[in-house]
């Protein structure tokens, strides 16, 4: 009999086997304006709020808006924020008209792979509409 400690046997399962919910954390400078934008103007359903953060439903996951980010009055460059929040919609021009009615400027572009409509939040983070008519969404 030996006094050697046995290492626990861990499964080689992928991280996804352990994930209960996926989420995105958006660090903002203009926190109140960003919460209002995503919650009230875009209509993301409210989940919960704690000191310094607001959590909204984002499809099957969540978008957590927190403080301590760096905002910009104009659209951030990919070097300033290499992430785009994507909203797949049935009809990009129709969704864009809904946003434009609220004063949100949407830039619609046709690509070989689909239609997009980009817009920015109050911190200059890029958001994008994408047509959901490709085979993946069927």
Summary, kept brief:
This protein is α/β, with parallel strands linked by helices and 138 residues long. 14% of the residues lie in helices and 33% in strands.
Overview of this structure, please?
This protein is an alpha/beta fold and 138 residues long. The chain has a single domain, classed as 2,3-Dihydroxybiphenyl 1,2-Dioxygenase, domain 1 (Roll). The protein has 2 helices and 8 strands. The strands form 2 sheets. Strands 1-4-3-2 form a 4-stranded mixed sheet, with helices on one face. A hairpin with a 2-residue loop joins β2 and β3. It is globular. It starts with 22 loop residues before the first strand and ends in a 7-residue tail after the last strand. The model has no long low-confidence stretch (mean pLDDT 91).
Rg over CA atoms: 20 Å
N-to-C series of helices and strands: EHEEEEHEEE
- Assigned CATH superfamily: 2,3-Dihydroxybiphenyl 1,2-Dioxygenase, domain 1
* Domain count: 1
- CATH first level: which class? Alpha Beta
Number of strands: 8
**Cα-to-Cα separation, first versus last residue:** 61 Å
Determine the strand fraction and express it as a percent band.
Answer: 25-35%
> Helix/strand-derived class?
alpha/beta
* Largest sheet data: 4 strands, mixed
The level of helicity is 10-25%
CATH architecture: Roll
Low-confidence stretches: none
Looking at CATH, which topology would you report? 2,3-Dihydroxybiphenyl 1,2-Dioxygenase, domain 1
* Widest beta sheet: strand line-up: 1-4-3-2
Which word captures the global form?
A: globular
């Amino acid at each position: 009999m030996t006094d050697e400690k046995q290492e626990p046997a861990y499964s080689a399962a992928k991280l996804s086997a352990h994930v209960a919910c996926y989420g995105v954390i958006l660090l903002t400078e203009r926190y109140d304006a960003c919460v209002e934008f995503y919650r009230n103007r875009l209509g993301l359903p409210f989940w919960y709020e704690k000191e310094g953060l607001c959590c909204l439903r984002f499809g099957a996951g969540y978008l957590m808006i927190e403080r301590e980010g760096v905002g910009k009055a104009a659209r951030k460059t990919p070097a300033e924020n290499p992430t785009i929040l994507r909203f797949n919609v049935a009809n990009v021009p129709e969704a864009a008209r809904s946003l434009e009615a609220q004063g949100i400027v949407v830039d619609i572009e046709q690509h070989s792979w689909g239609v997009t409509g980009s817009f920015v939040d109050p911190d200059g983070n890029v958001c994008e509409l994408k047509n959901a008519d490709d085979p993946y969404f069927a």
